[in-house]
Amino acid sequence: MKLIAVQTRGVVVKLHIQQVSTCPFSARSEVHSLQSGASLSLPLHTAGPVEVLFDPGGSAQSRRVLLSRAGLPGPRYKQRVSVQNSSLTLRSLTPADQGNYTVRDLQGNTISTVTVTVDAHRDTVTLQPGASLSVPLFTGEPVEVLFDPAGGGNWTSVCSVQNSTARCVPQYRDRVSVQDGSLTLHSLTPADQGNYTVRDLQGNTISTVIFTVGGPAPPGRTRLLSILIPVLTVLSALGVLAGLYYGKTRRENQAGDRPAMFSALRDGDDGETGDQEAQQKPATAQQTTGSHRRETFVFFEAPLETGC
Questions:
Q1: Which among 59, 120, 239, 250 has most CB atoms closer than 10 A?
Q2: 3-state class of 196 per DSSP?
Q3: What is the pTM of this model?
Q4: Rounded to a whole number, what is the largest CA-CA distance in the chain?
Q5: Residue 293 has what pLDDT?
């Protein structure tokens, strides 16, 4: 802006001249890739009033008002949009939110354009039978929850959810609850393992949870093992000690039997020797071996001596 002073006939006239750039306005452009359930932050780049439009299909006819010129969220975004510090935040994204977001000033000039892609949320969960499985919905819009037991695309319906109310097929009717944006399947069994997928009414996959049976042992089984292991260890140690004691006792008994056996053998030899000596002299032979004493009496006939 320039200030020019012109004096005419003693009157000073001040002219304010504002310079306007003839260069075209350069809009900012960004690309974001997010997952279901995430939040998108759109910088407004100005403190003045703006409007934010969403174009999911690439044509002006499909545009939706995310934020009006009055600074109010569009009818479909009242619960998900907030504006703070010159930034707009869109919460709980789903694949239905992917597309182009345009920020414009009140003169219709494009300030920025953000292109967003939203991928389905995936999770793998391992639980014990009897536990509960939580499947996030990520949206308050109507959705359908499907089940594929083998992961081969053979989908069957579990429930349709709208306004936090689930309408389920008979086998799930008494086992399902919806709370805090999630569907919970209670009292799991091995037949429940497989893929659970949440889809919107346009067929977009919002989230997939892969459930398998397994995981840590239940508390009761863990407590039983904690008791049995020390008991089995003590019993094994006692068995080893008993075996050592039995072996030592048996060796001692065998060592005590050997002298008696050898004494018996020596007694037999001494008996034969005593018989031979008894044939030479008529007497009573007495023999003592160790603590065993043996007496041998030998009788024999001798020729009578006559006087002739």
A1: 120
A2: strand
A3: 0.60
A4: 214
A5: 47
